[in-house]
Specification:
There is one protein chain. About 40% of the residues lie in helices and about 15% in strands. The protein is α/β, with parallel strands linked by helices. It has one domain: NAD(P)-binding Rossmann-like Domain (Rossmann fold, 3-Layer(aba) Sandwich). The strands form 3 sheets. The chain has a 7-stranded parallel β-sheet, sandwiched between helices. A 3-stranded mixed β-sheet has the order 8-9-11. Strands 6-12 form a two-stranded parallel sheet. Strand 4 (about 80), helix 5 and strand 5 form a beta-alpha-beta unit. The protein binds NADPH dihydro-nicotinamide-adenine-dinucleotide phosphate. NADPH dihydro-nicotinamide-adenine-dinucleotide phosphate (NDP) binds near residues 83, 86 and 218. GO terms for molecular function: methylglyoxal reductase (NADPH) activity. It comes from Malassezia caprae.
Length: about 350
């Protein structure tokens, strides 16, 4: 009998790639996947090969943080937990980010702990749970972040943060607190399942999730879309460390499939990409897009930052235990630009 895996939040950018990767795996998994509403069900199923649809069971979970998840975890061997709000334009950090992230993770682990079939749980955390803004964030020449690092931000600081970066700060703290809660749960409850966390920085790649429109483009894809949608200035703060979404999905699967891979945090990194490098590349490889590059791109393309001068990310554990080999920035950026151009052509893109 084939193994059943659970993917939470399958309508998300990374989660839909997880679904594709799980279905393509030689392990022939059956996939149960949660989504907040069945409104995207038909579009989701239409994106799958007919022979794969039979191996997919979709179930509605209105709120991972408070719903009864007994049905979701029943008979499942592996769980990939991706549901978590990734947005920075929020009104209330506690309500919009901190509580859904932390309570969503804890509620899932609580139900997983009651289900004897669950052997392994992989939680999608983030480099956000690792970066230390108080020490300078990436502005730490010579510093190399590892999985020993933890974002020191607290619930109270995130809840009370103000100013233009408050949403980003609260998001990062939500990821730190959710991941910390997961490791603390394992330490305290000693469940029969093992835990691993995947900590990617910015995740880029084709947007294949259902129901995508310009207004709900996932946050990391929107950051790249800002480079080719005719802005009147260069976007500030494209966060340089990145990982291709297919590598992120592969890392999750390898965590459960490879021996000795569970029980660890995995920092992923395919390299560094600045907005200046990106506009130069796009101008050279997509001449027809030059008119859609942000105003000032010519100057930006001539002033490429030295990305070896910012803090680096140590992804050696992912290379060692998950046997990862990451896609580079040119491949990743090209995949994104090709995809975003196609998205723009969809009739309902601006709906
Ligand atoms: P998406 O926004 O595409 O997906 C987020 C998922 O979480 C969706 O399924 C969404 O459901 C669900 N969700 C959003 N808000 C809530 C909420 N309040 N309560 C319950 N569910 C919610 O983001 P990504 O795919 O990019 O992110 C997936 C995971 O990866 C997240 O945990 C994120 O923190 C993490 N991550 C992402 C990175 C990136 O650059 N993309 C980098 C590092 C980590 P619905 O579709 O119904 O809105």
């Amino acid at each position: 009998m084939s193994t059943t895996v659970l993917i939470t939040g399958v309508t998300g950018f990374i989660a839909f790639h997880m679904l594709e990767a799980a279905l393509a795996s030689p392990s022939n998994y059956r996939v149960r996947a949660t989504l907040r509403s069945m409104s995207k069900k038909d579009e989701l199923l239409a994106r799958l090969l007919p022979e794969d649809r039979e191996r997919v069971e979709l179930i509605e979970v209105a709120d991972t943080a408070s719903s009864d998840l007994s049905e979701a975890v029943r008979g499942v061997s592996y769980i990939f937990h991706l549901t978590s709000p990734f947005q920075t334009n929020i009104e209330d950090p506690e309500r919009d980010l901190l509580k859904p992230a932390v309570d969503g993770t804890l509620n899932l682990l609580k139900y997983a702990n009651k289900e004897p079939s669950v052997e392994k749980v992989v939680v999608t955390s983030s480099f956000a749970a690792i970066i230390d803004f108080q020490a300078g964030g990436l502005e730490r020449p010579g510093y190399v972040y590892t999985t020993k690092d933890w974002n020191p931000g607290t619930f109270e600081e995130a809840k009370n943060a103000t100013g233009p970066t408050a949403g980003l700060f609260a998001y990062c703290v939500s990821k730190k607190l959710a991941e910390k809660a997961a490791w603390d749960f394992v330490e305290k409850e000693k469940p029969s399942f093992s835990l691993a966390t995947i900590n990617p920085p910015m995740v880029y790649g084709p947007t294949i999730q259902p129901g995508i429109r310009r207004k709900n483009l996932n946050t990391s894809s929107a950051a790249l879309y800002d480079l080719i949608n005719g802005r009147d200035s260069m976007p500030q703060g494209l966060f340089p460390p990145f990982c291709h979404v297919k590598d992120v999905a592969a890392a999750h699967l390898r965590a459960v499939e490879l021996p000795k891979a569970m029980g660890r945090r995995y920092l992923l990194c395919g390299g560094m990409l600045s907005a200046n490098h990106a506009v130069k590349f796009i101008a050279e490889h997509y001449p027809l897009l030059q008119s859609k590059l942000p105003k000032g791109w010519q100057e930006a393309a001539q002033q490429l930052p030295d990305l070896s001068q910012i803090a680096q990310l140590d992804a050696s554990d992912a290379k060692k235990y998950l046997e990862m080999d990451f896609r580079d920035w040119k491949t990743t950026l090209k995949d994104c630009v090709d995809d975003l151009q196609q998205l723009e052509k969809r009739p309902n893109w601006d709906a």
